[in-house]
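Regression test case RT-17, inverse folding.

Input:
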């Protein structure tokens, strides 16, 4: 498993634990806080966010002039399958 995949799984687990699905959203900055300081803002972190958005596992919207993210409730099965792979 790569570092980017680990970061993606950490982001998904954080959003699931906070129950951030569909219309409920949180700032992108809060999502990045799930990582250790030396990984925040790294190319792996940015790549993980981009990959989650490309796979449509996350949805993004502008709210209060900030990017907010939430889990795509239509892709719930794919999200749980992604988390189960590699265990």
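Golden output:
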């Amino acid at each position: 498993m790569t570092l980017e995949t680990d970061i993606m799984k950490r982001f998904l687990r954080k959003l699931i634990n906070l129950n951030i699905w569909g219309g409920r959203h949180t700032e992108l900055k809060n999502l990045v806080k799930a990582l250790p300081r030396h990984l925040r803002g790294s190319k792996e972190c940015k790549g993980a966010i981009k990959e989650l958005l490309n796979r449509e596992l996350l949805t993004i919207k502008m709210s209060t002039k900030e990017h907010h993210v939430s889990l795509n409730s239509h892709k719930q099965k794919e999200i749980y399958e992604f988390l189960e792979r590699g265990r």
